[in-house]
Amino acid sequence: MTTAKTPKKPARRAMTLAEVRAFITQLAAANPNAESELDFVDDYTLLVAVVLSAQATDASVNRATKALFRDAPTPQAMVELGEEKVGAHIRTIGLWRTKARNVVALSQQLLARFDGKVPYDRAALESLPGVGRKTANVVMNVAFGDSTMAVDTHIFRIGNRTGLAPGTTPRAVEDQLVRRIPADMLRPAHHWLILHGRYVCKARKPECWRCPAFDPCQYRMKDDLRAVGPDKAASSEAF
Ligand code: SF4
C-alpha cells in the first residue's frame, strides 16, 4: 500500500501571479455566490457570531446564536441578559466562559464608546474584548465591503500548501494574499478560500481528484492524490 507522506515544504514553489489569478478564478467559477456560513442579521450580530466562531465550527455557532439573538439582538439587550445567561446559550461552543464574558463586555463598550454601533475602524474594532485582527478583518469584509483577508486555519493551510501565499505566520500569509490576489477579486476571495479549505482542500485529505483549481496548484502530492481518487486516498496532512 502506498502512503502519502507529509512533505516538509508542501508546495513545489510559490505560484506565479498568473497562477494566482487562475487559481482564484477557478474557485470563483466553482462557487460564484460564496458567502459567510455564519447566521447574522446585522453588523452587531455578525460581530458577535464571529467572536463566538473562534476555534468552533460555524454550524455549532449557528445552533447557539439562534436562541441567543432571539433573546439579545442588540448590545443593550445583551448587557441586560448578562454573562451567566449568555453563557447558558453558548455552552456547546468551545471556550464558552471566556466568550460569554467578552460578548457582554464588547456590548458594554459599543454602548459606551460607539453609540451602540459597530465601528468601521480597524483599531476601534481590535480594541474590543475578544476581537483580534482576524475578527476585525471578517467584519470589515462582510459588514463594510472592504477588501480585507482574514486568515483562519483553512486559509493559512491553503496559502502554504498550494503556493498561493507561503508564510510562517497568519499575518505573513495575509500580507502575501493581499499583495498577490488581484484587487478586484480580493474581497470575495476570502469566502472562496474558506469554503475551498472546508470542503475540498481539507487538512487531512485534500480532495485533489475533484478540485476545480487543480492546474495552478503547486502542492507536491496533488498528482498522487488525484491518481488514487476518493476511495483509497491516504492521509496527507501538510498543515
Ligand atoms: S485540493 Fe489538491 S489540487 Fe486542489 S488546491 Fe488543494 S492541494 Fe491543490
Automatic annotation (TrEMBL):
GO terms for molecular function: 4 iron, 4 sulfur cluster binding; class I DNA-(apurinic or apyrimidinic site) endonuclease activity; DNA binding; DNA N-glycosylase activity; metal ion binding. It is an enzyme of class 4 (lyase). Its cofactor is [4Fe-4S] cluster. GO terms for biological process: base-excision repair, AP site formation. Coiled coil: none annotated. Transmembrane segments: none annotated. Binds 1 [4Fe-4S] cluster. DNA repair enzyme that has both DNA N-glycosylase activity and AP-lyase activity. The DNA N-glycosylase activity releases various damaged pyrimidines from DNA by cleaving the N-glycosidic bond, leaving an AP (apurinic/apyrimidinic) site. The AP-lyase activity cleaves the phosphodiester bond 3' to the AP site by a beta-elimination, leaving a 3'-terminal unsaturated sugar and a product with a terminal 5'-phosphate. Belongs to the Nth/MutY family. NCBIfam families: nth. PANTHER family: A/G-SPECIFIC ADENINE GLYCOSYLASE/ENDONUCLEASE III (PTHR10359), ENDONUCLEASE III (PTHR10359:SF18). This is Endonuclease III. It comes from Komagataeibacter europaeus (Gluconacetobacter europaeus). The lineage of its organism: Bacteria, Pseudomonadati, Pseudomonadota, Alphaproteobacteria, Acetobacterales.
